[in-house]
Fold this sequence. Notes:
The chain has 182 residues and is α+β, with helices and mostly antiparallel strands. It is built from 7 helices and 5 strands; from the N terminus they run ααααααβαββββ. The chain starts with 18 loop residues before the first helix and ends in a 5-residue tail after the last strand.
Amino acid sequence: MTYPSPTDLVHPSCPNFRWYEVWRSQLATRYGFDNTSKSERVILGAKNLVLHVAQPLRDHFGGYSPQSWYRGERLEKILCKTAYAKWCRKKRLRQSPASWSQYFALKSHPTGGAFDIEIPGVPNDELFRYIRDNLEYDQLIREYPVVGDPRSGWVHVSFAEGANRNQDFALTSKGIIYDYLR
Ligand SMILES: [Zn+2]
């Protein structure tokens, strides 16, 4: 298999997204490590996300570039430190390479098929509602909305070819809201 170069289109029929947008991470840059992947699963995951979610949103709302897309294990380990510790407590597991593998397997950004987005000029509540009502997805999460501020937080979307669970909810500091904006 030939690997894509950073300026190649992620999906040949979607003109607005390139591989550097999948790999880039301010945190990886700051720590000085590579956050690209050669995994076929990741490459396919990103392609499907562009075809089914990223490009349809671009066509409807206009230009944007995702904030956080692929996260390799090294990046995820830094970003999920607190969430992993909390997960271990909840599952009554010790923090160990075995429990980390179990936790890491549940994450969607490392599949290439998930990203966090905001679109300039579009309130995140409106973006959430549009995706929920018009697109196919695995999980759609309204992350950290503040009551009364439709622009607060951000929107997480994942797509899993053949395995979409079609779940939507909001994640807040107080927990999960399953009927958000219903
Ligand atoms: Zn996310």
